Amino acid sequence: MRNIKITLEYDGRRYAGWQIQPKNQTAKRQTIQESIEKTLQKILQEKIKVIGSGRTDAGVHALAQVANFKTHSKIPLEKLQKALNALLPEDMVVNKIEEVGPDFHARFQAKSKLYRYTILNRRYPSVFLRHYAYFYPYPLDVNLMRKEAQYLVGRHNFKSFYTSDKKIRNPVRTIKYIKIKNNKGLITIDIEADGFLYNMARNIVGTLLEIGRGRFPQGSMKKILLAKDRTKAGPTVPAGGLCLIRVNY
Amino acid sequence: MRNIKITLEYDGRRYAGWQIQPKNQTAKRQTIQESIEKTLQKILQEKIKVIGSGRTDAGVHALAQVANFKTHSKIPLEKLQKALNALLPEDMVVNKIEEVGPDFHARFQAKSKLYRYTILNRRYPSVFLRHYAYFYPYPLDVNLMRKEAQYLVGRHNFKSFYTSDKKIRNPVRTIKYIKIKNNKGLITIDIEADGFLYNMARNIVGTLLEIGRGRFPQGSMKKILLAKDRTKAGPTVPAGGLCLIRVNY
Questions:
Q1: How many CB atoms lie within 10 A of CB B1?
Q2: Which of B128, B117, B233, B126 is nearest to B171 (CA)?
Q3: Where are chain B's structural domains?
Q4: B112-248 has which CATH code?
Q5: Does the beta-carbon distance from A128 to B11 stay under 8 Å?
Q6: Is A57 a catalytic residue?
Q7: Residue among A124, A132, A134, A184 with most chain B CBs within 10 A, to mutate
Q8: I need a surface site. Which of A53, A111, A168, B88 has the fewest CB within 10 A?
Q9: Phi, psi of B186 (to 5 degrees)
Q10: For residue A130, with 0-12 CB atoms within 10 Å meaning exposed, 13-18 middle and 19 or more buried, which class applies?
């Protein structure tokens, strides 16, 4: 059996996320995983199980999601990549394909992930970014957002930023860094962590926006983190602004 | 009467271009101009005629199309911009709005226009650029394209690059510059001219690609220009790669 690692770019808009989640079992939107498995099965003519580095939620995009699968097929990799890109829907592209050792596991071996949330902070929206950035026309104190974000860096219980999905999970994660850039109102918030709880990135950004807008006072982030209470944090910002940028192994 | 100048960004995909052209009279797709006039009339409650700097063809995008219209309304500009952006479809945004002198005319006073054509030149497509760049996976000699493009700069008869729309037009235009940039396979071709004939930018790019790919030999551009014959030039590249970047007054 060959073990194949693929790197995937996708526009999450049409999808119910990477994988069917319990509460989505009745949803009619396809998942990314289903779409890739179906296409691989068509090409390779065998049952394929694709393992992703982790779930991306419904509507979230990816620049470089990583997945792997095992196959008996001897098809050359370049040919397989071309066939995939010809048969996958146009909102999904395989950027890279490589053969890896039999032990490589896209989920278990992922060391960290980098997510980027993009905000368009100006008075009028953008046509070309409308599906990829959250239009937020209110004045923001970006420096204060940067300072407050630093309280989240390190190993913490992130229960305050975790939208419960009814499974009991260990809410402790390690955030390696949070970097906030502002390029003439196009604000990107990069968060690298060893793992993300359900909606964690979007709840952190929603809280940062409340702080930046002055609705939560300076010092709020520390208090919210320590409260371990989801109701203390800000709202979940829309999925379209979020993109999985990189998975580190 | 106030004379109002607006700067517009739009995603051309859903539209039959700026203005209904003779051959599109039966088309069902709306035009940009219709969409703006309808929205302005709804807000201002009077008949409005919008003058664009020029037509953009069906499917072509704009980052900063310029238009003007006259109105009796005394509505503050900021309020009008907000109302427009709230009521226009989400693939159309008013970036800027200003009051200009009674003589300003978006078409007659346009001195030059800058169009950008974007090509994605690598082995696999891009999800996020799929509607805004022409995916062209064949190797290109970009330096040769740059050299050949220079034959078009200046005042010339561009009949070879003009898809006839059955109106007799003067085919002489002045190209101020053509700048070709290549950023890791993302190629942009900027063309600034005092005016563009129907499909002129896309026919120039189609010809440059034939040269870059080696299907037209070095020296072709000069011969094609002098031939004044559309059949000698390359094909019309897809509309989605083209964007009106700026109109100079």
A1: 9
A2: B233
A3: 2-100, 112-248
A4: 3.30.70.660
A5: yes
A6: yes
A7: A124
A8: A168
A9: -95, 100
A10: middle
State whether B91 and A130 contact (CB < 8 Å).
yes
Q: Which of B135, B107, B10, B96 is nearest to B50 (CA)?
A: B107
- Asked if A2-100 and A112-248 have one fold, the answer is yes
CATH number at A2-100: 3.30.70.580
User: Could you report the per-residue pLDDT of B193-248, keeping only the tens digit for each?
Assistant: 999 998 999 999 999 999 999 999 999 999 999 999 999 999 999 999 999 999 99
CB B229 within 8 A of CB B171: no
Cα–Cα distance between A47 and B237 in angstroms, integer? Answer: 40
For residue range A109-139, list pLDDT tens digits in order: 999 999 999 999 999 999 999 999 999 999 9
pTM: 0.90
B170 contacts: CB under 8 Å, gap ≥ 6? none
Collect all residues of chain B within an 8 Å Cβ-Cβ radius of residue A11. Answer: 127-128
Are residues B124 and A10, on separate chains, in Cβ contact within 8 Å? no
Q: Are B69 and B40 in contact (CB under 8 A)?
A: yes
Secondary structure (3-state) at A106: coil
